[in-house]
Amino acid sequence: MKELILSKPHNIGTLHESTLHADLKWLLSESHDQLEKRVENFVIDIVRDDFLIEIQTANFSNIRRKLEKLVQNHKVRLVHPIVQDKWIINIDTQLDKTIRRRLSPKHCSYIDIFEELIRIPDMISHPNFEIEIILVQIEEVRENSGNGSWRRKGWSIYDKKLISVLERKEFRNPSDFLNFIPKSLEPPFTNFELAHSLKKPLRLARKMSYCLRKMGMLKVIGKRGRAYLYDL
């Protein structure tokens, strides 16, 4: 992977993409690749011969139809960045200066892929499809526009910028996702037991078990009390 140069011009993106998306496209591309090339009426981020690379920073629902069409005739890799560390930059647009820079208390890891994978869990079973997860550090630039979420007290997200790539992993078939189940957790298990073993919220454990069932990696074999029991 290329060395990240934060001062490089972001002129490769033409589709109103974030700086984060443009940075990842630049880092992942090789010298002979074609960027933003049209394939079967879709604009593809990176085309490497007959290998298509699509970068999706959020909301897999938006790209599902595109992926379903493309995998019929092409090898497709979906690249998704997961933010391990995020620095929030608050900009005063009137004064054109940074008010503060702080590290977000939220830190994500590979397992957070299930937050998005729940929208396309069946696709990983397709022989022409694979996912690459990239752990990143980013800056999120916010401006005091007054039109942002109430959670951000009116501040709007203006842009997201890549600081560094920490690690990368590829997932080519459903069995690769079984590695997320802790080895200390013996099947059969409930979602509550899975969440406790992962030290993650119950909602994430439910998304994980749902995805693994759709992939054919887990099955329901009964109940423990009112909770479903899952086995491999």
The N- to C-terminal Cα distance equals 36 Å
What characterizes the major β-sheet? 7 strands, mixed
Count of distinct strands = 9
Strand content: 35-45%
Q: How do the helices and strands follow one another from N- to C-terminus?
A: HEEEHEEHEEHHEE
Global Rg: 20 Å
Going by helix content, strand content and strand pairing, the class is alpha+beta
User: Considering DSSP H and I runs of 4 or more, what fraction of the residues is helical?
Assistant: 10-25%
Number of helices: 5
When the domains are counted, the total is 2
Low-confidence spans: 5-15
Overall mean pLDDT: 89
Q: Rough shape?
A: globular
Plain-language structure description:
α4 (191-198) crosses α5. The protein has 2 domains: 1-172, no CATH class; 177-232, Arc Repressor Mutant, subunit A (Orthogonal Bundle), CATH 1.10.10. A hairpin with a 4-residue loop joins β4 and β5. It contains 5 helices and 9 strands, in the order αβββαββαββααββ. The model is unreliable at 5-15 (pLDDT under 50). The strands form 2 sheets. Strands 1, 2, 3, 4, 5, 6 and 7 form a 7-stranded mixed sheet that branches. With 232 residues, it is of the alpha+beta class. It has helices spanning 19-28, 64-70, 114-117, 191-198, 202-214; strands at 34-39, 42-48, 51-55, 75-92, 97-103, 129-143, 156-171, 219-224, 227-231.
